[in-house]
């Protein structure tokens, strides 16, 4: 089994061909391709982490859709002062399907 660890959207994700991942919003339209440089590559028992070898490898993914994540509710409260603050946030996200590790 071949898989790679890629840096995407400020995090590191473990991906293999056919996987669907969700990362922070990436510019472009649905159907566009996105390329990532791997941090680590595992091919069966062979583990590649050398920078020179990883420069030759790219992970290609196809953009499926843009969407917004679930609502996160933020409440700040200070006792005995009458201070309350309510705020909400929905993260802009992108769903990608990994098509090739080469």
UniProtKB/TrEMBL annotation:
GO terms for molecular function: rRNA binding; structural constituent of ribosome. Coiled coil: none annotated. GO terms for cellular component: cytoplasm; ribonucleoprotein complex; ribosome. It holds the Pfam family Ribosomal_L21p. Keywords: Ribonucleoprotein, Ribosomal protein, RNA-binding, rRNA-binding. GO terms for biological process: translation. PROSITE patterns: RIBOSOMAL_L21 (PS01169). InterPro entries: bL21-like, bL21-like_sf, Ribosomal_bL21, Ribosomal_bL21_CS. Part of the 50S ribosomal subunit. Contacts protein L20. This protein binds to 23S rRNA in the presence of protein L20. Belongs to the bacterial ribosomal protein bL21 family. PANTHER family: 50S RIBOSOMAL PROTEIN L21 (PTHR21349), LARGE RIBOSOMAL SUBUNIT PROTEIN BL21M (PTHR21349:SF0). This is Large ribosomal subunit protein bL21. The lineage of its organism: Bacteria, Bacillati, Actinomycetota, Actinomycetes, Micrococcales. The gene is rplU.
């Amino acid at each position: 089994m071949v898989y790679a660890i890629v840096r995407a959207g400020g995090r590191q994700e473990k991906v293999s061909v056919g996987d669907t991942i969700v990362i922070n919003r990436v510019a472009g339209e649905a159907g566009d391709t996105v390329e990532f440089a791997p941090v680590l590559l595992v091919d069966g028992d062979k583990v590649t982490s050398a920078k020179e070898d990883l420069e030759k490898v790219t992970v290609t993914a196809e953009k499926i859709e843009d969407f917004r994540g679930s609502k996160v509710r933020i409440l700040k409260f200070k006792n005995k002062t009458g201070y309350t603050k309510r705020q909400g946030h929905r993260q802009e996200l992108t769903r990608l399907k990994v098509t090739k590790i080469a």
